Amino acid sequence: MMLRVNEVVASAPGRVNLIGEHLDYNGGRCLPIGLPQRTTARIARASDGRVTVRSGDLTWSGVVGERPDGWAAYVVGVLDVLGIHEPLDITISSNVPLGAGLSSSAALECSVAAGVDALLGLGLSREELTAACIRAETEYVGAPTGGLDQTASVYAEAGQAVLLDFADGSHAQVAFDPESAGLTLLVVDTRVAHEHVDGGYAARRADCEAAARTLGVGHLCEVTDTASALTALTDERIRRRARHVFSEQQRVGEFVTALDLGDWAEAGALMTSSHESLRDDFEVSCPELDAVVEAALEAGALGARMTGGGFGGSAIVLVDVTLVGDVRSAVDAAFAANGWGAPAHLDAPPSAGAAVEAAQGAPVVT
Ligand code: GLA
Asked: What does pLDDT average to over the chain?
């Protein structure tokens, strides 16, 4: 007896990037982990000719092919790029904080893509799922992001970081188990909202592309003689942008080696240098992110840095488990002293990527 799948539940995680920031669109390497916070999409076939998307109190509904504005575009964008013209009822729930730089939009796209793939039997590979989610965000929604978030949300694995190489599209798992050394990774959400459709991210990208054009390469991470390249870049701002990209690419390699050697002190120091480079050369940090890093280091953390695109969002902190309370209190105190609203604290054990959780079918009558 054949079963026709009528309803699927699929989920996908938010992410934090351990290191390798603003390297995806520069053809470099990034090292994200999946978060335990996930977005879940329950997707059912409908018979009313409409696509209806619900999330909490919000509902968007349109005839198949209609284009939403706002949050539902991340869902309908996935259907659009996959060429799906079926009426569907989609219900979203999520505990990935929104606007926190933890890739809530990628978690949404990837949960929907994994769900419709299973519901409609599309048989998509992980590469195809990832590519569809990237296109939904960059082409349909129009956020000029670089692919890190969707790739992380699809390829993440429990207990592992995933080394993404945007030069050749390859991925490799890298064991990431700070608990084995008595450490833990904390996420601090500054609650300063950030948006990639805003100009800062696009401006950084444009600076990097300008540098690559001057240097005659397709992407900045193709440059091998970085010292000569920096001399050749005469515009001071563009030179600083390139210097971040070159130094960050170097740090990714050193960080992977440090993890391999179990040298957590070095891994922490590299996270902190990454933050300094993003703050001073790439100029995508903000006072709240800097305050998290400073307070965490003063309270004894091994390393700390902003994660994601910047201009708000979240920071990550590598710290001995016995100092977690001290770090969180120090960060809270710094925010209170500045008159800022309290940040949110999350734990970040590396968690699994997009997956189908349940499917229900009915017998097909032939
Ligand atoms: C955002 C973007 C990613 C990546 C990071 C910075 O999260 O969506 O593509 O560029 O910023 O590393």
From this structure: 96
